[in-house]
């Protein structure tokens, strides 16, 4: 029998994998959050079943080690290592050393969309997830994440300040990350533009043909380019972003399922429900109940 991998929100991640956290931390729904590994993640109960994330997070190990499963590969993170876990990825923590220290940086997808529209940062979506930092960059990042944590704890915090700090982190990681091979630049360019149009149009347009027309290429060529970069066909990308959008709308308990399906331009409520179940393993109603459970 095939095991269903559940999709979890940042709230569920904290609830399930950061034991002993305060109610204030658990209920924190800010789009950017920073926590210390030694105060939270080190107490995680292991092993845990793999899960799919509806948000993004970054693990930065300053000391000790963490073994993290990500998309069918085990990554051993040691001092100065970064692992980027992006929205939609399947992951779980396999091992944490008793002396592990560092940071978990959680950032929701609407934040990353706001700051990656610049051409340089668009490539961030496709860098290798495991980055080994130089000693100088590791010290710089440690100081910046401490500053972000302090800033976010300040009641006077302006989210734009935190977004600027996050942008600085991304630029620095781009400098340290493996570069995309020149041979796939054409495919990457098509995929980046597809992703940009998808962010703009997914609420109204769900056919691959629409995006192929915008890019002035054939559907088959779009499929080839996107799949070579992301490992997914364009239709799957369209479905997943639509369902992730619906998950955000489901958090409003006053909204009924039919109105959400209508707002996202699904052909029917039943079709939306089938697609939602295919992507998340649960119906929209069951997913909402799960989110509301204490």
Automatic annotation (TrEMBL):
Pfam families xref list: HTH_18
Keyword Transcription in record: yes
Tagged with keyword Transcription regulation: yes
Gene3D superfamilies: Homeodomain-like (1.10.10.60)
InterPro entries linked: Homeodomain-like_sf, HTH_AraC, Tscrpt_reg_AraC-type_HTH
SUPFAM superfamilies reported in the protein's UniProt record: Homeodomain-like
Domain HTH araC/xylS-type residues, every copy: 192-290
Keywords: DNA-binding, Transcription, Transcription regulation
GO MF annotations in UniProt: DNA-binding transcription factor activity; sequence-specific DNA binding
Name listed for the protein in its UniProt record: AraC-type DNA-binding protein
Organism: Chitinophaga terrae
